[in-house]
# Entry
Amino acid sequence: MESFSLILAIVVITALAFDFTNGFHDTANAMATTISTGALKPKVAVAMSAVLNLVGAFLSVEVANTISKGLVDESGIRPEVIFAALVGAILWNLLTWLVGLPSSSSHALMGGLIGATIASAGVSAVHGGVLITKVLIPAIAAPLVAGIAGLLSTRLTYRLGRKSDGKAAEKGHRAGQIASAGLVSLAHGTNDAQKTMGVITLALITGGALAPGSNPPTWVIVSAGVAIAIGTYLGGWRIIRTMGKGLTDLQPQQGFAAQTSAATAILASSHLGFSLSTTHVVSGSVMGAGLGRKGGVVRWSTATRMFIAWGLTLPAAALVGAGAEAVTRLGDWGTAAVAVFLVASSAAIWKISRREIVDHTNVNGDTPVDGAEEPAGVVTQAMAAVTPPPASPVTEELTATIPAPAPAPVTPATTPPAPAV
# Structure
């Protein structure tokens, strides 16, 4: 029978909070392209994604076992270490959400766990082989494989549909895009919800509430699935805007190809127990789909920012996790201080986000943020300066009247005097 201490209860609540942030942070993975191409309305898309994330949480526990049994030595850490790891992961998720960057929630969690474990039990407590084979190698390979698959499938889709009726083909691709988006949502629940299950299970083992090597209990699976579904329904609109519009402009054919490629890669990795980043997979497939269409482009400035965020995720979350673990070692008041810091930081990030609201009404850029008009760009201003105003419409027949030239002044003729006789 599981017995709970206060610290275990805190860890479980914090883990579910991370799962919630994972849900709205990664909604873009499944639904950004569907929303950007107009295949589904924003609120309908996130509702469908939330339901399928919940269903996906019950399909497998392989990834959860990778985290709870394989990544770190469960006998050498305390529940406070798990709590510190979650603090690092949550703060990184919120920071990247604030700036609209689709970074990896999975790697944030891995980084926080690795940093807190090393600070607590040393480097030997991290299983390097598992880290390399099931975290780092997939992190590098996933976006490349998904990008190539997205590029090739996009070209194949356009080639097969070049002789079909335009409107009928577009409807078909939109339907296929909805189906593939649902598959990505299902895969996301199967992969990402399990990470929270694994963390909670690891905390229960380290706290003595479960025997070592145990699988996630049913209540852990249910609670993790519900938390990620709620977060998904709220929608990470900032990241959806970046993924759907900031990387490239997608047509329905490209969206269908990108999401099908991503779903295949994610489901395969979940079956193999790889702690794959769905963000990396979907971002790679979107960029590949962008390059797969003739004339398509990728906005490499946005992609570069994403790559930098990906590279910083593991070390940044690890540093925060290690620092939080050092404070928790000071006793109960140290754990309380870390909890207060987490709540205060989260509240501050949320308050900053209210300065520029992004939601389902302006996620595609149809409505300027905060109702303000978009400023004209440099090119637009220059063209306006040199373009003559349009001629006013002519309503009456015009007649040209050319004034006669003014008559030249007449100089009176002078009669020469008669010669003298």
